[in-house]
Design a protein that fits this description.
Layout lengths: L6 E5 L3 H13 L3 E5 L2 H11 L3 E5 L9 H9 L4 E5 L14 E4 L4 H12 L16
Parallel strand pairs: 1-2, 1-3, 3-4, 4-5
Helix pairs in contact: 2-3
Length: 133
């Protein structure tokens, strides 16, 4: 399961989960950037231009990551939700979105990331390993 240096944005309010995901993804060759709030996620999205994203549905307080998911859809950036809730909790527009069930297994996260970032239509540059933008 090669990551080809893909950039992944992690939107999660639990700092320990962020650290765990960042370490695991780095060991697999992914580059990561994280955000703990919706506002921070929008800033990172502009600065970072990720190849994929993992979104915790429920962030601190009443914050939900659905507006971030909408922005990712508009930018054609694949993502998966991470949640302990059932699919029925998601708005209708996200009923077909990929989900990593919490508590998650790291292998499940890696499998979903490999799936959402796979793109046979855009082969990676042989020198950089990055897909064309």
């Amino acid at each position: 399961m090669a990551s080809l240096g893909r950039r992944i944005m992690i939107v999660e309010d639990d700092e320990f989960l962020i650290m765990d995901l960042e370490l695991t993804l780095a060991a697999q060759g992914y580059e990561t950037v994280s955000a703990t709030t919706v506002a921070e996620a929008f800033k990172r999205l502009q600065e970072y231009s990720p190849d994929g994203a993992l979104l915790d549905v429920n962030l601190l307080g009443v914050d939900r990551s659905f507006s971030v998911a909408d922005a990712l859809v508009a930018a054609e950036i694949p993502f998966a939700f991470m949640t302990g809730r059932s699919r029925s909790y998601l708005p209708d527009r996200f009923q077909r979105a990929k989900i990593v069930a919490k508590p998650y297994r790291l292998d499940d996260v890696l499998d979903v990331l490999a799936e959402i970032t796979a793109s046979p239509l855009n082969p990676p540059d042989p020198q950089t390993g990055r897909e064309p933008r």
